[in-house]
# Entry
Amino acid sequence: MKTTKRSTLISWLTLAALIFSFTFTGNAQAQNGRSKVSAHLLEQISKNNSTRINIILQLNAPPSGLLKGMLRSNGFSIKGDFTSLDLMALEIPSNMLGRIAEFREVAFISKDEELASLGHVTQTTGTDDIRTETTTSNTIDLLDETLTTTSTKTFDGSGIGVAVIDSGIDATHKNLLGRVTFSRDFTGENRTDDPFGHGSHVAGMAAGKNSDYGGIAPNANILNLRVLNAKGVGSSASLLASLNWVLANRAAYNIRVVNMSLGAPAIESYKNDPLCVAARKLVDAGIVVVAAAGNNGKNAAGQKIYGQIHSPGNEPSVVTIGASNTFGTDSRGDDGVATYSSRGPTRSYWTDANNVKRYDNLAKPDLVAPGNKIINTLSDVSATFSNQLVTDNPWLDAQVANTENKRMMYLSGTSMAAPAVAGAAAIMLQANPKLTPNMVKMILQYTAQRLPNFNAFEQGAGQLNVKGAVQMAMIVRQDLTNSTPLGAALLTTNTLPTANSTIANYQFNWSQSVIFNHSVGTGTNLITKYQKIYGTGILMSDGILKNNGILMSDGILMSDGILVSDGILMSDGILVSDGILMSDGILMSDGILMSDGILVSDGFLLSDGILMSDGILMSDGILMSDSFVQAQSAMIGGDQTQTMPVTSLSNHGW
# Structure
């Protein structure tokens, strides 16, 4: 009798749940008119006729009992519950997608993408020049005599936790020995070493301690979070699981920097992309997130392509890094942007209620760093496994050592550039632990070297200048908070720092600029007055107002005296504004308005891209097949370097 009553009750509850769920009809459209289901996901379902799909579920509130009941029923499988990020990874019947979207607590549903990695430095970036700083202070003793005290501090990332999210790390390698303080596998292979070979090289770039081929912050603590398997492939779910772990454990390990030399083609708008949403939560929590821009800067014919920034590098709060080419020299006078380095603007999009694609068109990358033919850690090749990259490409072995655990390898790509910036951020935070992620990003851009003949869609604010960035970090006040008044003094000194650096006997001016979403801001007030955009929980581009080229304050965000350009200037002098308006009459926004009046849909792809009058190809961001996350290394090749004597290559990463 009890069983019958219980069965009846369950039947009534199930029926009630079904009736209740049908009351959500129409709620699959978010309140802002955006679809709650990724258009890319729907496209994949229609193409593949899949009966089961892997999805990432974003929540704007804790799941209701009804939603929990559905997810626990037959046919549903919870692959990951990332409570710190308000995200879940699920495997569901494809015909239930619409039902899930109707729940009010569901914010957005996207595909669980496949991941894969994206593929000298201390001297050419000025790190060696700033490694040891000597300061002198004067004090008056009881006899009114002046006492001079000299102190020396080493900037090497000491005490700062840098999470390297990659293919694992060979913690026994001499370049990294003693630096890996925590390791965890998120791939399911139950190992934290590096059989693929990518993560060890990346970790070495950030924090390796080899005297010739070391990293930027050789005493930082490395957290090895493995999300790419032995083939260098992972999933969005594994990456989200690692980011969820970082957010929950940041205090225990003093994690201040995260490096992601990996990514997927950016299809979903950063407002919906779960990787971007998760990255923003880390930044809001005070963690500097560095991501590789990608290696799709040219097509098979060698032509420049714009619009191929990868996710999560398309997230505004992330420091997105492209690759520069030092041509094997320490001098920065001959440096340029690597041809393969992905260019902006971002072409991720959201789809409105009328099924019209609305592109983000954000200016990215934020800056570039050396990434071409870089020598660093080669993970150990043993009897149990082999370094996959070197096994497939033996010439990547740099032949600088024949002893296991000391060997080095070449890699090229934005994967190599990103950890150089992550290491720089670690040193900046050692110099000034009170810096917010937005302050770190501003200082990195303001002190960067603008490379001639490359526009902001190629180089952002310019090339990494560790020396200048650390010098700036040291003089920023350490008592600043979100409640600090707008326009308050930012620095501990009234004397402006000299806006140039000399590295390897080459002097250059700082960019003295910051990249906003669709424009460039300049002015000394960026470094002399506290701006509300330097706080946590806000983007540099949030709520910006412009009037006659001057960035106006609304009493909340920015002080006056900061000039904002009308757009991004291309290297050929063409000004690209908010709508990406080209001087030949081509408007790149939500439609391409040709000068002859023909309107072409923005999603329409002509050959490999849309050919602009100057020969530039503008991609729509969906050239790659099913969007897998990969290591951002141009592992085969890299840009050609200038012919140089062998003696000059000993420690230049060529």
